[in-house]
């Protein structure tokens, strides 16, 4: 952009000359808004020559953006050119140095953690809504005069189908208008459709309202990883992601425990009223406390404020790519699909977690029938069975946190933290995953003591959490510039699996029995073991060889 002919505004040089700072992903000024491309580590204050070229010539092509590795380390001559370019163009707005308090990476810890806590609570409650009324499904069938077991499974899993469709729109929206507006709007619609579920007059209406509630309930799972990447450096993310990622796993597990007692005492409709009350309280807290963490939006607002204060209409954010809202939306909405097509790792991990997630929801729809028919558990007691999965998830979280802390410390001592460090524990989760199904299936088949199949569920819970958290943290670290889109691509596939696999679960058990049915599930999961070892060994080569450009 040409220099402004008006007198230079009286704002700090660091604010106007964003050229002295560097995004952690090497983003260029003319790139489309992305998840974290304006959040440099606090100690990093340099840009590369590509940044300089992009600022001097806004029309430069974006084709050479290296999404996964970022730019090469700048040379001294490059820095000199940046300073020279900054003196020519004084209209670029960026952070006021590496310690700018407006930069979400520099927020006080209590602000970061309050944001993270609210998002994590939402990622707990909204997946919890997927399974809370699973113990009450027989009462739903009775009230609506149907005995269709496939319909019984679908009324539970259709909520997860909404998780598949929501990210297609919600991830691009968060990159256009910011995280907070998407959270607020989706919260309102989630509450509205959850109330509609509580008042549903028919099975068809209940299915439709469940789907729509799931669609808007996908917001925290789709954009939460991006919010965390906005506020925390890679070294800090493992612990934060542990808090965030446990919600989608623990929520559906705790749901049937609560739903079992609530359904028996108040009826199945009160499952939805409880979700409305809890989610409503979180929505109010988010409206009062949430701060926008998406750096391109923060910088855009800062530029608008400075234009008003200085009277200089030429001031613009360093991350303003000059695209219209329509162009941004079109560009962003295809990004998750491009990741699935052009990144082998994204595709492999989507299928990987699709299998894990699908199995988890197959268990949600089958455990109630298995323990009521085989072990004669009552409606409220059968909900306690899901605690086996919950205990497994808690153990898995402890194992993951211990391993992450150890590996991060070791990597920093050895010179740097690569995303592939996250994958070292993945093969162990894959190894015990099928074992859990073998134990669950054959102990239930032979009607051993009820603790037998629950031990199998504990092992499944450990494996599921290790695999889920490892892959999610890896995706955020590898694609941090587009972390919301990377998680969205994964969420779409795994949610389809979570919605569709349970539909064949009860029929499979009817034909094969609990023993051979779960053995088949375990054998299908066995290939995850060699896949995990191969990705652990060759993941970095795949990541660097298949670079995703021009996202």
From TrEMBL:
It is found in: Membrane. Keywords: Glycoprotein, Membrane, Transmembrane, Transmembrane helix. GO terms for cellular component: membrane. The chain crosses the membrane at residues 116-139, 151-170, 182-201, 207-226, 238-258, 270-290, 340-364, 384-404, 425-444, 450-475, 487-509, 515-535. The keyword Membrane applies. Pfam families: MFS_1. It is a multi-pass membrane protein. The keyword Transferase does not apply. It comes from the Eukaryota. This is Major facilitator superfamily (MFS) profile domain-containing protein. It comes from Bionectria ochroleuca (Gliocladium roseum).
